[in-house]
Amino acid sequence: MALVRFVNSNKSPFAVEVKKGVSILNAAFSSFIEINHNCGGVCACVSCRVNILKGKEFLNKKSLLEKKQLESGGFFDEKTRLACTAIVMSNSKKNEIIVEVPPQEEIGNLTINEFREFLLK
Ligand code: FES
Q1: Å from CA of 12 to ligand 1 middle
Q2: Does ligand 1 come within 6 angstroms of the Cβ of 26?
Q3: pLDDT (tens digit per residue) in 74-112
Q4: What are the angstrom distances between the C-alpha of 89 and each of 37, 57, 96?
Q5: CA distance linking residue 61 with residue 113, whole number of Å
Q6: To 5 degrees, how large is the angle CA 46–CA 102–CA 76?
Q7: 41 Cα nearest atom in ligand 1
Q8: Residues 6+ apart with CB under 8 A from 6
Q9: Global pTM?
Q10: Domains along the chain with CATH numbers
Q11: Which of 15, 27, 60, 72 has a Cα at 20 to 30 A from 43?
């Protein structure tokens, strides 16, 4: 179990122990942390994007599909991940992953094209 700590602008930080193989999105679900997932968690949008502030080395590497999706949304930096495809790869509580959750109301239930337009404003 790794330690995943969620932080956002609205709530206090919340930490949860997460088993190896669990996605950041599922870790958020089990912690009652709201992360949009407009495509249902199948790496077909970018609404579940989060920023990994610490511990990215304890997650799987970005797949080509995840990179492509993020780049289509204008996210080229290393710290941005899709929560549905970012998988915890550690089983040690000493390994902490800090996940910044962007304000979800700004992302809302936009389609991928609406989301791109939102980003370009
Ligand atoms: S929920 Fe759509 S890419 Fe993660």
Answers
A1: 24
A2: no
A3: 999 999 999 999 999 999 989 999 999 998 876 655 555
A4: 21, 9, 11
A5: 26
A6: 50
A7: 1
A8: 13, 14, 15, 16, 28, 31, 33, 99, 101
A9: 0.86
A10: 2-120 (3.10.20.30)
A11: 15
